[in-house]
Each structure stands twice: as structure tokens, then as C-alpha cells.
User: Fold this.
Amino acid sequence: MIENQNIRPAMVIGPLGEPLTVDSLPDPTTTRWVVRRKAEVVAAVNGGLLSIDEVCERYGLTLEEFASWQRAVDRSGMQGLRVTRIQHYRDLYERQLKY
Assistant:
């Protein structure tokens, strides 16, 4: 029954420990996605502040792009979101799965 209710928190804790609200999320016109902004959006979805569909529509992201951010955070934390280090963290994760 609870899944039919639209209960959302007013704020969630962001990746750096700061409170995040819908108003404090990155601007919908954001085109330069730095690690902190990506992590804030992932934290908003994980905390229930926004749904994945809302994030994709609000920021013009594909589901695959957002899912890759979420996987990167789950596997390697904020450092996994760094574009210049994606291959390094992907290789590290794959090596860990082998052993």
C-alpha cells in the first residue's frame, strides 16, 4: 500500500554530507557535469528526492547515462565519476570480481 503514496523527503544528505533539496540540486540547464554535481543527482535519486524519470527529464540524460553514474558511485564512490579515471576504476572492479 505504501508504494502507491507519493511520500518524498524534503531533503536528503548529499555526497559531501550537506543537506540537498530540490532547489539546491544542479540547475536543469547544466551542461558541464563535474563529479560533485553527478554525485548530488545520484544522491537525490537514492534518497527518494527525485525519481530516475524526473532526473532524466530534468537534466536531459538518458537512462543509460544516469545508470552509469549510479554504478560508478556504487563501485568506486565519487572518484568513480571522474571521466579521466573511468577505465582505471572499471578495470579495478573487474579484477576484484575475478578473485
